[in-house]
Amino acid sequence: MYGFFSLILLINLWSFNPGGKTKSMKEETQNIITVEIITDRGNIILELYPDRAPLTVYNFVRYVKEDYYDGLIFHRVVKNFVIQGGGFQPGLVYKEPFFDPVVNEAANSELSNLRGTIAMARTSDPNSATSQFFINTCDNDRLDWDKCSDRYGYCVFGKVTEGMYVVDEIENLPVKTVGPYENVPTVDVMIEDIIIHEDM
Q: What CA–CA distance (Å, rounded) separates 35 from 47?
């Protein structure tokens, strides 16, 4: 768990954007956190960028450290769009978030929703993201802060570095509608664990 001074550092990083220049993930990143999503379909390794979206990364990491994601499913799979998880148990049993919503940092991080990136899911309220996340399975720049109709967008905070074939396999599963929920995989895709390999 992060201490007070670590949180202050994160907040300072969040507010720092020299010259207002557009950032890309190809630029050098001082701090990278490597996490591994262990699923029953294979493992997905991601880099997270706390210097681009510090509050978002901090939020995700503390859910991981609390073992919140263990036993949840990828509950929404839309071909040529996203796979989404982090909020439901098998049987579409909703799991209450542990923490308050995080501030939307999409405009500050300026990272684009490209194929293989991970971003926070939210409601129509731009600042409503809690535990749910999605991985883009194609370039979805219409979700970016500068193209999204609400001008807030969806905050990217990392990208897949290994295991994109697992994402593609999940994306191509058959889906069904269950009550109000569309694009639900016909078989559960379990998140067995998320491991932090490199921490701040």
A: 7
At residue 85, what are phi and psi to the nearest 5 degrees?
Answer: -150, -175
Give the span between the Cα atoms of 106 and 14, in whole angstroms: 11
What CA–CA distances, in Å, run from 49 to 20, 25, 59? 18, 9, 12
pTM (two decimals)? 0.85
pLDDT digits (tens, 9 = 90+) for 1-17: 344 333 333 333 333 33
Average pLDDT over residues 184-190: 97
CA distance 88 to 76: 10
Phi then psi for 110, rounded to 5 degrees?
60, 30
What end-to-end distance do the CA atoms of the chain give, in Å? 11
Task: Return d(Cα 17, Cα 25) in angstroms, integer.
Answer: 15
